[in-house]
Amino acid sequence: MKSVTEGYDGSVLRQKMKVVNSSKRISKNQNNSLPALSILAQDISELAHNEKEIFSPIFQRWNPLAAGVAVATLHSCYGNELKQFITGICELTPDAIQVLRAADKLEKDLVQIAVEDAVDSEDGGKSIIREMPPYEAEAVIVNLVKSWIKTRVDRLKEWTDRNLQQEVWNPRANKERFAPSAVEVLRIMDETLEAFFLLPIPMHPALLPELLSGFERCLQHYILKAKSGCGTRSSYIPSMPALTRCSTGSKFRGVFKKKEKSQITHKAKSQVGASNGDDSFGIPQLCVRINTLQQIRTELGVLEKRIIADLENAECIQEGTIANGTGKRFELLAPACGEGIQQLCEAIAFKIIFHDLGHVLWDTLYVGEVSSSRIEPFLQELEQYLEIISSTVHDRVRTRVITDIMKASFDGFLLVLLAGGPSRAFTREDSEMIKEDFKFLTDLFWSNGEGLPADLIDKFSTTVKSILPLLSTDTESLIEEFRSLILDSSGSSAKTKIPLPPTSGQWDPTEPNTILRVLCYRNDETAAKFLKKTYNLPKKL
C-alpha cells in the first residue's frame, strides 16, 4: 500500500532543504541567539502556511489532501533533523529547550493545517495524521527537567549531610541563635527554586511538586537529625522504685545510685555554663536546635508565598492550578517541625529536672529532716537554667519550653514525695513546709507576673495541689480511705486479704496506690503497723 504522501511534488522538499541549509548558515555565520533548528522550525512553519495558501489550492485538482500531504512531508523532514539533535542532548540547556519548544510549536501548526485540510475527507484526516509520528518534544523537556531536579535535590541532600556533620549547635554562631547549617540548606533551596522558575518551560506547575517533594525529603532528614540523640521524656525520668517502707536511718537512694557529690556538682555546673559549643547536647545547644526548627517552620511560610508568586508569573498557568496545589506543599514539614520542637522541649525539661539537677532533687530534697532539707537549693540551680533558656530560646517557643520545665519540676516534686526512696519520711507536721516549698516552686515560674501566666501555672499544678492534703490527713483516715478504695475496686470483702494495688505512676488522691505511698512515707507507728500487717513491709522507721 502506498503512503498518502508518496508522489508529492518534489519542489516542496527542495525548498525545505534550502531552508535547512540557509538556517544553519545563519546560525553559524551571523550573531544570532537562536539555534539553527529553532530558526528552521520557524521557516518550515511559514513555508507550510504559504503552501496551504498558494500551492495547495492548485494541487487539490489532483489530490484533495494536497495541504495535508505537504505538511506531513515537512513534518517528516524536520523530524529527521530533530531526532539527531535529541540523540545528542545530555543535559538541560537553554538551546535544547528553545529547539524542543520550537519543534513542539511547529508540530502543532502542521497538525492543525492537516486537520483543517482533511475536515471533509472520508476518514477526517486520520490517514494523514498517521504519517506524522509525534515528536514528543514536551516529553523530552519533561525528562530533561526531571533529571535537572534530581541532580539538584541530590546535591542538596549531600550539602545537608555535610553541614549537619559539621554542626555544633553553638548559640553564639549568630544573633538569631539558630544553626548555620539550616541557613545554608534554606539558601540552597531558595537558589534552586529561583533557577527552576527561570527555566524557559511551559510546565512549571506540573513539575514543581517533584522539586518540592525533594525539598521536603531533605528537610525531613534535617529535622530528624536535629532531634536525634537528644532524648525524650522517658530517657530521663527514672523508673519507678519498688514499693518500700521509709527508713530514716538508711542512706539508700531509691531512684538513683549514689554518686560522689563533688562529681555531680561539677557536672551540673559545667552543663549550666555549656555555651561554647563543645557539648552538642548541652542545654544551650538543645535550645539552638529548637530555634532552628522554629526558623525552618517560619521559612516554610515565606517559601510558600514566594512559590505562589512565582507560579502566578510562570507561563501557561491553567485556572485553578495555584489554588489546588498550595495546600499540599510541605504538608508533612510543619507537623514534623512541631513534633521535633515538642520532643526537644520535653528533652530539655526532663534533662534539667531529672538529670542535671538530680543531685539536688534526689540527694538533697527532704532527705532526713524536712526542716533542714528544703527546696531552696533546687530553686537556685533551676533559676540558672531558666535564665539561660530565656536568653537563648526563640520568643515564639520560650513559653512552651519553660512550661514543660515547670511540668517536669512538678513531676519531680511528686516523685520525691511518693517514690523518693526509703531515706525520706514525712510527718503530718511536715506537710505545711512541703506546701510552702511547692508555693516557692510555682512562684519561681510566675516570677512576680513576668514569667508564666498564673492560669497556666494553676492548670498544671492541679495534681500536686490535690495530693498535698493527703500529707496532712491523719493516718487512720488514710488507712480507711485506702481500704475502702481497694475493696470497692477489687470486689473483695473486709475479711479477705487486701490486694496490693498496681503502680501506675498517674498520681491521684482517689487512686489506691497514691494513698498507699503516702502511708509508706508516713513517719508514725500506726502506718508502720498497718503496712507490716497488710503487706509485710518492714516496720522499722
Automatic annotation (TrEMBL):
Coiled coil (UniProt feature): none
Cross-referenced Gene3D superfamilies: 1.10.357.50
Organism: Morella rubra
Entry-linked InterPro entries: Munc13_1, Munc13_dom-2, PATROL1_C, unc-13_homologue
Domain MHD1: 97-240
Pfam families: TPR_PATROL1
Domain MHD2: 372-482
Protein name as catalogued: MHD1 domain-containing protein
PANTHER family: GLS PROTEIN (DUF810), PROTEIN UNC-13 HOMOLOG
